[in-house]
Amino acid sequence: MRILIVISFLTLNFYVAFGQEMNQENQKLITDFIECIKYKKKSTIKVAFPLHMHYPVPYIKNRQEFIDRFDELFDDSLINIIVNSNPSKDWTEMPNNDWDGDGRGFRFLIGQIWLGCDGELTGVNYDTEVQWKKRLKLLQLDKDSLHFSIKEFEVPIYILETTHYRIRIDFVNHENIRYVSWPIGSKMSDEPDLILDRGRYITEGTGANHSFKFRHFGYVYKCYIRVVDTDDSPPALLTISRGDEIILSEKARIIGR
Question: Cα separation of 131 and 81, whole Å?
């Protein structure tokens, strides 16, 4: 049985977003992508590099890696679903009203595939057997490398880096999303500076953008994650606030998801 993971394991709940009616030009972009997948035109599929993979599987950084690792992304089951899809019914054009920007793109079904506004592949949220086995092996290595206090969790969600902090967000169990942070120069094998439990997962806008919210003695720590990207928007953002006052706001890069 294939396992679908949409922005890790959480976002299946909100892919009921309202889409826009798709014009013929955009349907042509999707049709071209479908044809490339059907005939496995690995060298001609438009791809936005680096292509993010589910942590701790390394990103696909360039065309040659995409060709070499194509079977990690697409198995016969997913290819068959894509090839038999209807561009006007099974693909949704996402609107321009997501968090902090006007990014848009095209979503396949509930988010198994994401394309950018020019038809380039920007995300594959589907686990082939090849990738799943690789991920399980790397996940155990990841756990072994952590400080003993944070080794227990089910699924890693994100690793972020701001100017001053390295942040790790993990799904510990169905009742607990955990925030862990270190000074930026530290290793994740070092004792964390801060561990916050029982975070909330929050959808942002109508697309895939979302955030995680944690509370700590009157302070609110919030990590915004931008999936539908624009060139001038950071992929992530950390804010710390107390009441209505924002005490800290730092752009973050995603180094693991």
Answer: 18
- How does pLDDT run across 173-189, given as a tens digit for each residue? 999 999 999 999 999 99
Token pair 């709940």 in the structure block, residue: 13
Tokens for 135? 């991920």
Give the three-class secondary structure for 13: helix
Is 148 exposed, middle or buried (CB count within 10 Å of its CB: 0-12, 13-18, 19+)? exposed
What gap in Å lies between CA 75 and CA 64, rounded to an integer?
18
Q: Determine the pLDDT at residue 14.
A: 41
Classify 74 in phi/psi space as left (phi over 0), alpha (psi -120 to 50) or beta.
Answer: beta
Q: Which residue has the higher pLDDT, 71 or 232?
A: 71
Are 47 and 121 within 8 A, CB to CB? Answer: yes
Boundaries of every domain in the chain: 3-130, 149-256
CATH-assigned architecture of domain 149-256: Beta Barrel (2.40)
Distance CA 159, CA 133 (A): 21
pLDDT number for residue 22: 81
Q: In this structure, are strands 155-161 and 126-127 parallel, antiparallel, or unpaired?
A: unpaired
Q: What is the pTM assigned to this prediction?
A: 0.72
Residue 210 DSSP one-character state? E
Cα radius of gyration rounded to whole Å, the chain = 19
**Which residue type sits at 66?**
F
Question: What average pLDDT does the structure give for the chain?
Answer: 87
